[in-house]
Amino acid sequence: MSTFIESCEFLTDEEGDIYVNMPDLHCERALTRLLRSTKWGAHPIVVLTEYSLIKKAFQHPSFQGRPDFFSYRIVQRHRKRGVALSDGLVWSENRHFLLTQLRNLGMGKTFLGDAIADEASLLMDHLEKACLDRPVVIDSALNTAVINVLWMMFTSKRYDVGDLEIVQYVQVLEKILYVSRKKIFLLDIIPVLPKILPMFILNAFFDFNVGENYFQELTKMSENKIREHLTSLDPDNPRDIIDYYLLEKTERDSNGFLTHFDAQQLCGMMNDTFLAGLDTTASTLRWMMLYLTIYPDVQAKAHQCLDEAVPRTRLPCLADKPRLAYVEALVLDVLRLSSLAPLLMFHRATDDVVFEGYTIPQDTLLMACSEICHKNKSFWQKPDQLYPEHFLDENGKLDSDKENFIPFSVGRRQCVGESLARMQLFLFTAAILHRFKLEAATTTSLKSESDPATTIFNRPDRFELVLRKRN
């Protein structure tokens, strides 16, 4: 049997679309664009563009590895850590622990929803006091509110907007995410570069030292929190995820388990969670505000939905969700349209795998084009517009179980914090729209298109808007 990488014959149709000519079970040769093969520098890649194949591949047990990228090794200090970038036993143990504790601490449950609603209320009060009726960029306050929810789950502590410790922490997270958008990914594509280029070129051109220094600073902050917990740990009254991890580690050590539980794994989990939370939840909320200034008719419908379901005397809560189908559909369509991770995260074949009639060689990477799914013209009525009706049935009821919708990935490596992120997105969006009307600032030109040079994350450019308090 020939391998996929060797056998795929690339063709171009009249419109310039690339297809792959490959055998089909029912005919000798069939033209399809479901699978493609390419190379990203030294890495052979299978490109998946169709929902059913993405789902099938990402559920396969031998497609759960992560790439051995240079940037990944630096971030993890040449050792598999955390959840997002690790694989094998390290990944499965860390994922199981983190998912269990997130659920134990309320992910998807009402009492955590109340805590998020409280955080949203504090954010609304801050925005009303500091940002009303003038052009503003509200990134900092929004980031703090999003991180506070995660911070409480890990450390049992929250911060006020402007608190120096949380400001510094969020700044480091933002700088890491900024560097990740720069040229450093070229070191992954051409892995020989770090070996042949002098350090001053790596630092000057790729921001190598900047990214490494910021990540070390982030890890040091996480380590400090772990040390604080070690000195105050009460085994009979665990407070948060750090406490539960330390207790689990103690139990495993005492019973002679050969496991990967240690402080560095906990640091990796914390770093993964906070970076993902800031990048996914906060960026989606920024996209939401940007889109609503561009689509005032959608904003007006959301306001009407809220006014019919929630009194003006209080902010929306999780119990209101069944009556706020349009608002929830709005959140889902923002996730679809923005496609924060247009290629999701790369998977790696840990063995030779026969997939769709082809042998995918070990260490081949799999790239899933979620943005193609999210803007499939044959599936979505208005693929390039904000249109919450995509997620409503003919009776106006929520219809969220959609094919071609994978903002949090799919399969065995689907985002651990998806339920938490959806809770935050719904409650923060509902609170913002309940309290404010969003208008475009005349001082800035709003752009809803993603940067075509972006390959990993679609983040909105910084923009100003005007918040008007609703009566």
Automatic annotation (TrEMBL):
Query: Which co-factor is required?
Result: heme
Entry GO MF terms: heme binding; iron ion binding; oxidoreductase activity, acting on paired donors, with incorporation or reduction of molecular oxygen, reduced flavin or flavoprotein as one donor, and incorporation of one atom of oxygen; steroid hydroxylase activity
Keywords recorded for this protein, A-Z: Endoplasmic reticulum, Heme, Iron, Membrane, Metal-binding, Microsome, Monooxygenase, Oxidoreductase
Q: Which locations, inside or outside the cell, does it occupy? A: Endoplasmic reticulum membrane; Microsome membrane
Q: What is its main location?
A: endoplasmic reticulum
Question: Which InterPro entries does this chain map to?
Answer: Cyt_P450 (IPR001128), Cyt_P450_CS (IPR017972), Cyt_P450_E_grp-I (IPR002401), Cyt_P450_sf (IPR036396), Cytochrome_P450_fam2 (IPR050182)
GO terms for cellular component: endoplasmic reticulum membrane
Superkingdom to which the source organism belongs: Eukaryota
Q: Write out the residues that bind heme.
A: C415
Kindly list the biological process annotations in GO that this record carries: organic acid metabolic process; xenobiotic metabolic process
Instruction: Describe its membrane topology.
Output: Peripheral membrane protein
Pfam families linked to this entry: p450
What functional role does this protein have? May be involved in the metabolism of insect hormones and in the breakdown of synthetic insecticides.
Protein family membership: Belongs to the cytochrome P450 family.
Protein's recorded name: Cytochrome P450 2L1-like
Q: What is the lineage of its organism?
A: Eukaryota, Metazoa, Ecdysozoa, Arthropoda, Crustacea
